[in-house]
Amino acid sequence: MNPEHVTMSSKVDAKAFKEHIELVLEYRTNKKDGMKRLRPPENQKLICYVEDLHLSYMDDYGDQ
Question: Is residue 47 a contact partner of residue 3, using CB atoms and an 8 Å limit?
């Protein structure tokens, strides 16, 4: 088990978050359909919990 904890501020956008998550993933071939997809390393699982408690600015949809 390799825990990865990420703390972000309101300045981090979706692209930066995606790039950070992809750093811990690797491309592997799916046995069912033969397609390469991003997955956790062999014999490991990925649990990604994102909670936005401190949204300090108003987004394009008017949420704050």
Answer: no
**Segment 7-58, tens digit of pLDDT:** 777 777 778 888 888 888 888 888 888 888 888 888 888 887 777 665 566 6
User: Which pTM was predicted?
Assistant: 0.52
User: What are phi and psi for residue 20, nearest 5 degrees?
Assistant: -70, -40
- DSSP sequence for 4-63: ------TT--HHHHHHHHHHT-EEEE-TTT--EEEEPSTT-------------S--TTS-
Asked if 37 and 30 touch (Cβ cutoff 8 Å), the reply is yes
What is the domain partition of the chain in residue ranges?
9-64
Record the tokens describing residue 45, joined without a space. 């699982």
